[in-house]
Amino acid sequence: MLMAAPVINPIQGITGTPAAISLPRLKTRIIPLSASDADDDSVTFQATSETADVTATVVRQSTNLTLSVSRTEMVGGVPTLVPVGDMVFQLLPGYAPKTVEAISSLVNRDPSFYNGLTFHRVVPNFVIQGGDIAGTGAGVSEITFDDEFNPQALFSGDGQLAMANSGKDTNGTQFFITLGAQRALDFNHTIFGQLVRGFDVLTDLNNDPTTNSVPNKRLVITSASFSENQRDAVLVLKSNSGGSSRVTLTATDSNGETSTRDFRAVPADDSTNDPPILGDVPNQVTTTATPITITLGSTDLENDAVTYQVVTDPKSSATVRWSVSVTGNKATITPDAGFQGVIRLLAKVKQTNASSRGSTPAPNDFDSQVFTITVKDQQITPQLGDLVSVAGTPLSPVVASFTADVPYTADIYAASIDWGDGSTSVGTISSRGPSGAGGPIYDILATKTFFRFGNYPVKIALTDAKSKLTRTFSLQAKISDAPLNAVFVTPNILPGTASVQGRVASFTSANPGQRLSDLSATIEWGDGTSSSGVVEGGNGTYTVRGAKDYASLGTYPVRVRVLGAGGATSEVSGSISVSNRAPIFNEILTPTVGTGQALQLTIQAVEKDPGQKFAYSLGSGAPAGAAIDPVSGVFTWTPSTGAGF
Q1: Does the active-site annotation cover 2?
Q2: Partners of 45 in the beta sheet?
Q3: Of 60, 140, 362, 544, whose CB has the highest number of CB atoms within 10 Å?
């Protein structure tokens, strides 16, 4: 089975050979696109411009708004609604999102809302207007919303769907459809849609006989509904210079079949001087008696000079307790001292010295927007927590945080910090993004190191330059003792003694500012006794000295325990050996003595450990009758017959 390619329907506004369409120089034109497809496939469009002189952009929405229209005719002498046909519009939420949302919500909420309403006004070759609940144009709308203007949404095309109003920002349910370009309406009415199918119906309605712009026959909207967009779009052409460009339009169906159409986009001199559009003016918040300056902006397609105004909204019922001054595009609003509440203001822009705004004469020749300034006390909500660190180690730089219901920049705040140890610092304020409530979170930053353990009462005084109020917050800095690390050192033993004196340990502290007076040490000597050690040193490096006289020789397990006054401890173990060297005899010559003769001999020995004492004695092999003086070492013996050693 052969598949058929889509067919691009004749494009409204393209004329001549070669085919061409005009658009205002350096401005835009919105052009309807539609296609047919014998296979009933969906169709999408693409557009390319041969040169940068013209930009071609396809805009396509998934749904279309369809208005079905009938005319009251006399049939057999009876008034009868006779269908005229359907007009299908593509809405333009990219240009008028709030307007599209308002009308779409109205139709979706009550699909029959427009049923039976009429096109009560037909001005040939200008507009047809409808949607009024009273059918006269004087009805009271159940919805009201502000104008929306976009620099690319001009009344330079045909069949444009726009909001009717009775003045600035009075849109309701009434709308109109243009018949040809109506440039005097630029930026006076909100364009929110483009007719893509049903131009024959629009022409039929345009030709209806009227009396004072009122159709002689009732033109009734029998239904307003949304339907899936299968084969429609709009093309936005924008002139970027005075040059023309060839535009190629391609339609592609869901089976990949394509067709193309070429035409030239030709910019033409534009005699319309479009009025400026006011940029969005957001609602503001300030604090009591604090001036606030707002920068106003606008778009003027011809870059004409503009004049701004900001006045109290004439519809406001509040007693004016503020002043407004405007210089250039800066508006400064100053609330009176003591005033709190909401100020309703009207921001406005017009071309300088203009006496009209297209179709709108002075004094309503401004584009305007209502905005509010809420004046209140600045509410500060602190986010506090204990500051936890170790002596000698810097705190986290974030001392505290706070949120504020008025989103000022961080530089309007100043903080002073009393650390509770006799020192103070100036805090730096930094904003780190929105909170859950939508306002920013501010951090109070400072550098601080405590060199002694303890709980310190910290007080923060926060001042903002706007309200000149100072708020005080309290929290605690909880500083633990710095860890200690001990190492055993084998002590010195006085020669010839059992007396220990000197270093038994060394240790370090992670706190370079550790107080010596906060350190102590205990030495367990391994013989059941203990004593306090002497701690010496500084700048984080220390020794423990001790003294001990052992009562007996041996090897003793020693343990040294170092303590910080804030609870830090470190233990280390080692051993001390107490020993003594034996004395050494001097050389003893072998004596000879006769039987019965007395022998006397002085024995001498040397003590290698100074200060030690020793005594002489005879061993078990000494002859009978031999003796030695324990002190002098004098040996005496009278040998008997046959005796010797």
Answers
A1: no
A2: 251
A3: 544
Please state, in angstroms and rounded to a whole number, the distance separating the CA atoms of residues 92 and 597.
147
Q: What is the rounded distance in angstroms from the CA atom of residue 311 to the CA atom of residue 571?
A: 79
Q: Determine the pLDDT at residue 608.
A: 63
For residue 587, give every residue at least 6 positions away whose Cβ sits within 8 Å of its Cβ, in sequence order, or none.
none
Active site annotation includes 344: no
Indicate which residue of 150, 165, 351, 369 is catalytic. Answer: 165
User: Taking the CA atoms of the chain, what radius of gyration do you get in angstroms?
Assistant: 52
Catalytic-labelled residue, pool 61, 64, 90, 129 = 129
Which residue do the tokens 């009344």 mark?
Answer: 155
Report which DSSP code applies to 615.
Answer: -
Residue by residue, DSSP assigns 377-417 as: PPPEEEE---EEEETTSPPPSEEEEEEESS---GGGEEEEE
Q: Which one of 121, 231, 452, 503 is the catalytic residue? A: 121
Phi, psi of 206 (to 5 degrees): -65, -30
pTM: 0.67
Query: Among residues 26, 60, 126, 618, which one is catalytic?
Result: 126
pLDDT at 616: 83
Rounded distance between C-alpha atoms, residue 544 and residue 489, angstroms: 9
Could you identify the residue written with the tokens 């949302």?
101
Dist. CA 50–CA 124, nearest whole Å: 37
Residue 245 vs residues 270, 301, 614: alpha-carbon distances, Å: 18, 21, 125
Smallest CA-to-CA distance from 221 within 81, 80, 64, 32 is with 81
* 120 a catalytic residue: no
Question: Is there a catalytic annotation at residue 284?
Answer: no
- Among the listed residues 29, 71, 120, 189, the single catalytic one is 189
Question: 89 catalytic, yes or no?
Answer: no
Name the strand (E) or helix (H) holding 531.
strand 530-538
Give the tokens for residue 437: 């409530």
Q: How do residues 449-469 score in pLDDT, each as one tens digit?
A: 999 999 999 999 999 887 778
218 is catalytic: no
Q: Write the pLDDT tens digit of every residue in 130-146.
A: 999 999 999 888 889 99
Above 80 in pLDDT, residue 590? no
| 118 DSSP assignment | B
Known catalytic membership, residue 261: no
Catalytic residue among 89, 119, 149, 176: 176
Residue 196: the pLDDT is 98
Tokens found for residue 228 = 């899936």
